[in-house]
């Protein structure tokens, strides 16, 4: 499905420049309006995936617009761009769940990278099939994208700074990759298959791949399981969570969503599902026969959570394929 972007600015020249930057040779459907009031009418008639708005405008300002759009559709990604970044305090950004703040003037390249990071972050990460000895590691890709988001501005920018400072999980030693005691033998999804096995060293490497994300204050728990509901490893801040039950329910939900998609004619099932709630949001990502579930609090940025989850999936896939 084509992602829709709505640009809101009272300056016609800025609307034209931003529209060209985001629509030229892009997969996005871009619309632009001159006021917050017009933007609300547009969103009410046709929801958008990303709101790209100025702050200071005649009539309703950008802050009120973001709040109203959040009431209509809490899943909308938000980029605020302004000549006065000091207008947006970190507290206000967290309250409105603004994903990114860009300071005018901003180059078309940075605008496009910021949008891609929120709407299509997985294309910024090389797929395993595209990697070779000369491919960039995931950390390098995050570093290349990061200039689109000023350091420390908004929840997503602050979290990306943490991602940039993090070193990727070290590869397993050669002797461990091909050998090692089998710690978990997963149930095969098809008859006639033996299922996958993971060594203790692989599972420990997977646990460490989740550690930095799981230690974020807004992350309630992180669970890695297979699609039959077997828990491989997890992190949790609460002792009252039954991880075994959570994994089993997540596996069942994932299989049910895949079946719903097949019945609706879906050719390529999605690999990332987000359930947004008032007090907690849940992200579930599938990687072949593996499932990663992340639960985050209401103050966490969904933009950051999506990127961190996809990054963790990339690392876990590397570890799984090292067997």
Distance between the termini: 36 Å
Please write the string of helix (H) and strand (E) elements: EHEHEHEHEHHHHEEHEEHEEEH
Residues in β-strands, percent: 15-25%
Say how many strands there are.
12
Sheet with most strands: 5 strands, parallel
In CATH terms, the superfamily of the largest domain is Response regulator
Given the helix and strand composition, which structural class is it? alpha/beta
> Helical stretch count?
11
Give the mean pLDDT. Answer: 76
Molecular shape: elongated
Any overview of this molecule?
The chain has eleven helices and twelve strands. The chain is of the alpha/beta class. It has two domains: 4-165, Rossmann fold; 174-321, Beta-Lactamase, CATH 3.30.450. The protein has a five-stranded parallel sheet with strand order 2-1-3-4-5, sandwiched between helices. β4, α4 and β5 (100-103) form a beta-alpha-beta unit. α2 runs parallel beside α3 (62-72), α7 runs parallel beside α11 and α9 (200-214) packs antiparallel against α11. The radius of gyration is 21 Å and the shape is elongated.
Summarize the structure.
The chain has about 325 residues and is of the alpha/beta class. It is about 40% helix and about 20% strand. Strand 10 and strand 11 form a beta hairpin.
């Amino acid at each position: 499905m084509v992602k829709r972007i709505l640009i809101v600015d009272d300056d016609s020249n800025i609307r034209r420049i931003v529209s060209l930057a985001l629509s030229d040779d892009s997969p996005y459907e871009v619309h632009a309006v001159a006021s917050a009031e017009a933007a609300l009418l547009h969103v009410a008639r046709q929801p958008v995936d990303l709101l790209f708005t100025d702050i200071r405008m005649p009539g309703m300002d950008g802050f009120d617009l973001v709040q109203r759009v959040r009431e209509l559709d809490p899943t909308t990604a938000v980029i605020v761009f302004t000549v006065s970044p000091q207008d947006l305090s970190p507290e206000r950004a967290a309250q409105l769940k603004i994903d990114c703040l860009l300071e005018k003037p901003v180059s078309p390249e940075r605008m496009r990278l910021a949008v891609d990071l929120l709407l299509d972050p997985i294309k910024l990460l090389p797929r395993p099939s595209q990697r070779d000895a000369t491919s960039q590691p995931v950390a390098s890709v995050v570093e290349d994208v990061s200039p689109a988001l000023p350091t420390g501005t908004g929840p997503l920018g602050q979290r990306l700074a943490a991602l940039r400072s993090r070193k990727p999980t070290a590869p397993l030693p050669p002797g461990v990759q091909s050998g090692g005691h089998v710690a978990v033998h997963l149930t095969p999804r098809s008859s006639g298959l033996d299922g996958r096995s993971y060594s203790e060293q692989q599972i420990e490497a997977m646990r460490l791949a989740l550690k930095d994300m799981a230690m974020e204050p807004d992350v309630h728990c992180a669970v890695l399981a297979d699609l039959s509901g077997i828990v491989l490893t997890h992190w949790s801040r609460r002792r009252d969570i039954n991880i075994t039950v959570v994994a089993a329910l997540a596996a069942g939900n994932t299989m049910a969503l895949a079946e719903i998609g097949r019945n609706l004619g879906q050719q390529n099932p999605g690999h990332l599902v987000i359930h947004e709630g008032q007090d907690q949001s849940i992200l579930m990502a599938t990687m072949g026969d593996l499932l990663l579930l992340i639960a985050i609090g209401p103050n966490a940025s969904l933009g950051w959570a999506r990127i961190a989850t996809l990054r963790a999936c990339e690392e876990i896939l590397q570890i799984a394929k090292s067997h």
